[in-house]
User: Fold this.
Amino acid sequence: MDTSLTQHQAHLILNGLPHVGPVMFRRLMDAFDDNGIALLNTNKNTLLQTHGIGPKLVSVLDNWELHFNLSREERLLEERNTRFISLECSDYPKLLREIYDRPIGLYWKGDYTIDRPCVAIVGTRKATLYGLSVAKSFAADLASLGFCVVSGMARGIDTAAHEGALSVGSKTIAVQGSGLDIVYPPENLNLYKEIIDNGAVVSEFCFGRRIGRTTFPMRNRIVSGMCEAVIVIESNCSGGSMITARFAGEQCRDLMVIPGRIDQMTSAGCLQLLRDGATLVTSVDDVLEELRYSRPKSSAVCLPKSTDDTVSISKAEQSVLTCFSGGEILSPDKIAEHAKKSSAQVASILMSLELKKQLVKRSDGRFEAN
Assistant:
């Protein structure tokens, strides 16, 4: 029996052991009154009497030294300027502590500790320019009003949300689905560093833990769990944001949705959430009203406009822009068909409109209004 462990060390060990998922961990901690030391030092027969605990997990707990290198993990925490905030710590997020399957602890990189209400902004990785613009605008305005914006640092809407909060010099928290020594997606390395400088990057996974089939859903329950509300901006029906939305409902968090076009896959999930009773929001003032916060007297923050009146647009260019008036995402062939122009004419016009920043060419070759 090892009596030299502290509760903090015991929580760090339990957090890093295999086969101890959130629900299983909660069963164990409930059985031992959140005493990690007692749990690790309990004999096998007592553990086997705990509901749902089998011989495999008992063996892992009884021989935890074979599965988790405590001294190495503590050394890495120090070398990488990272904290492990366990349930016993006062810095553990207050709202997250309320959910049933709360993580035993969080790896926390960044000096920021939550000191204000948190709101999550999540959405699809394959966002439209409209979605990205709305996410950045909402995040910037909420951050300016004193909220901490939380998201998952994924491509698309998550990235735009973090960038929006950072653009006004405010706080944002990124919750990762991997260990903090693995930046995902890799192109967000600079964003990762900027978030650490101005907020925090957190994860429940130990160093070296790579992304797997279960890590994103586990990450998503933390995103919603530490926030008062979750705002979904663009999601298809099977997107990860729908998992976050489900957690928000289970955790009794406010679930808000920004509507999109009915003929786009990126709106299908949002429309489903609205049918199921989520709150429709079209401005930051709607968010404040739902959360019962007041704001300083100022004009309402509305969704961004997509046109720039200072740019000179020719008649031919306007005929092409008209094809995008409803927010369509079109291929050059479809544009030629709608505008009744030849492919050569359309190619020239598209290049001109790109230079004037009126259109953007997507990675799939289609175009979208900026």
About this structure: The first helix runs from residue 7 to 16. The CA atoms of residues 10 and 194 lie 32 Å apart. The chain has three domains: 7-68, 109-291, 315-369.
